[in-house]
């Protein structure tokens, strides 16, 4: 799950990373109140879960109350790179002397954590990184080693923080790491990590996180009370919401073939098979969702899953692809029949079983004699059939 800047800031603040004062607002009235509280000048910033807001006109400096309101009236109706603005952050404006970039992310290949950093941060960071790749440092934090102040100080030095900034940068790196670990994040990025203050007064200068981007690992949400505090106020997909309530891994997609399987890999292959079949048949039929019912695919789980998939009006057919393991295909077949009794849907369902008691499962389905229930021997065959049903080429 990606966080909005106003939410990500909270997590940085909890670790004691300096950020400008800021208030989230969703209409001009709230903006006016927030601006008076924050003071002038301030920065009005679009809240969208996508970067490059500055370049898209989503970050504006305002010197007065009227300018703050006008800026928010420009920004609130915006859609930036297909993301509708959910509100604005009214933030204290800082005098920027220099912009650094620092991020921590998961590195799946080396099974540790990447620290990417450059002394040339700001909105042009990607362009600068392309032209001067040597200016971007890629460092690592070992998952098992302690990352302490000494290690953080070495890292701050090698990143190229100017001498006077090294100690504070080391503190911030350490706090970013704690933020990353304690929140089960997959990304914590600060750009710019700005040096701010009065250029003529050395004692006024310090580092401050002027922007924050954080992604959280959805697999860890159970450890954080479901991250209820970060629920998106704009839009929650009702099918994804229902699936979450049942503890199912579901992602809503745009096609017309519902897909249910067990194991993320098998479900991904099923999605590919459906897309491939749609292309082969020249109908461009696509999967309507990803749904992984997991290892212990009981009858009840199957029933809940079919219920969610069939309640989606864009679904024209369903592909069920199950590899029997802990739960036998016999159990899954019973679940499918129970679900159909309950739901009474007549949409075509194509089932492919493999593994534990596959033949018995298919037999139960065949003997049930349901007109809309079809069985297939292979995944490709099942995907072809389901795609044809969705295209209404057979019925
Ligand atoms: P992004 O474009 O989505 O990454 O949004 P940022 O929050 O990073 O803002 C973009 C740019 O606006 C920054 O790189 C800064 O140059 C500028 N900016 C943001 N906040 C301030 C501020 O308080 N003072 C000044 N002078 N510039 C700011
Ligand atoms: Mn930024």
UniProtKB/TrEMBL annotation:
GO cellular component: cytosol; succinate-CoA ligase complex
Listed SUPFAM superfamilies: Glutathione synthetase ATP-binding domain-like, Succinyl-CoA synthetase domains
The keyword Ligase appears for this protein: yes
Listed Pfam families: ATP-grasp_2, Ligase_CoA
PROSITE patterns listed in its UniProt record: ATP_GRASP, SUCCINYL_COA_LIG_3
Reactions catalysed according to its record: succinate + ATP + CoA = succinyl-CoA + ADP + phosphate; GTP + succinate + CoA = succinyl-CoA + GDP + phosphate
EC number: 6.2.1.5
Co-factor binding comment: Binds 1 Mg(2+) ion per subunit.
A GO BP entry: tricarboxylic acid cycle
Keyword Magnesium annotated: yes
GO function terms (MF aspect): ATP binding; magnesium ion binding; succinate-CoA ligase (ADP-forming) activity; succinate-CoA ligase (GDP-forming) activity
Binding site for Mg(2+): 191, 211
Record function comment: Succinyl-CoA synthetase functions in the citric acid cycle (TCA), coupling the hydrolysis of succinyl-CoA to the synthesis of either ATP or GTP and thus represents the only step of substrate-level phosphorylation in the TCA. The beta subunit provides nucleotide specificity of the enzyme and binds the substrate succinate, while the binding sites for coenzyme A and phosphate are found in the alpha subunit.
HAMAP family associated with the record: Succ_CoA_beta
Protein name: Succinate--CoA ligase [ADP-forming] subunit beta
Annotated organism of origin: Bifidobacterium adolescentis (strain ATCC 15703 / DSM 20083 / NCTC 11814 / E194a)
């Amino acid at each position: 799950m990606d966080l909005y800047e106003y939410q990500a800031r909270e997590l940085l603040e909890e670790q004691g990373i300096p950020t400008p004062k800021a208030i989230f607002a969703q209409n001009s009235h709230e903006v006016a109140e927030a601006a008076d509280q924050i003071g002038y000048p301030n920065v009005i910033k679009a809240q969208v879960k996508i970067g490059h807001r500055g370049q898209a006109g989503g970050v504006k400096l305002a010197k007065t109350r009227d300018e703050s309101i006008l800026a928010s009236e420009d920004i609130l109706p915006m859609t930036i790179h297909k993301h509708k603005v959910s509100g604005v952050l009214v933030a204290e404006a800082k005098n920027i002397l220099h912009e650094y970039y620092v991020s921590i992310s998961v590195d799946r290949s080396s099974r540790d954590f990447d620290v990417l950093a450059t002394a040339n941060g700001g909105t042009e960071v990607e362009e600068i990184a392309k032209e001067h790749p040597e200016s971007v440092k890629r460092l690592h934090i070992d998952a098992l080693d302690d990352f302490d102040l000494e290690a953080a100080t070495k890292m701050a030095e090698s990143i190229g923080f100017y001498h006077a900034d090294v100690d504070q940068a080391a503190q911030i790196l350490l706090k970013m790491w704690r933020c990353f670990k304690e929140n089960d994040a997959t990304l914590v990025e600060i750009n710019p990590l700005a040096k701010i203050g009065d250029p003529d007064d050395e004692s006024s200068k310090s580092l401050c996180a002027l922007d924050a981007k954080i992604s959280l690992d959805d697999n860890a949400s159970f450890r954080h009370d479901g991250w209820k505090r970060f629920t998106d106020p704009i839009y929650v997909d009702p099918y994804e919401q229902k699936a979450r309530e049942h503890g199912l891994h579901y992602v809503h997609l745009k096609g017309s073939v519902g897909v249910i399987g067990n194991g993320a890999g098998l479900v991904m292959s099923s999605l590919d098979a459906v897309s491939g079949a749609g292309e082969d048949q020249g109908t461009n039929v696509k999967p309507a969702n990803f749904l992984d019912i997991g290892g212990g695919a009981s009858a009840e789980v199957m029933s809940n899953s079919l219920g969610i998939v069939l309640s989606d009006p864009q679904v024209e057919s369903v592909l069920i692809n199950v590899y029997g393991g802990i739960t036998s295909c016999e159990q899954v077949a019973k679940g499918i029949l129970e679900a159909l009794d309950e739901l009474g849907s007549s949409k075509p369902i194509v089932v492919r079983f493999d593994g534990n008691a596959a033949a018995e499962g298919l037999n139960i389905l065949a003997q049930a004699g349901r007109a809309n229930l079809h069985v297939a021997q292979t995944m490709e065959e099942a995907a072809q059939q389901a795609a044809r049903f969705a295209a209404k080429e057979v019925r």
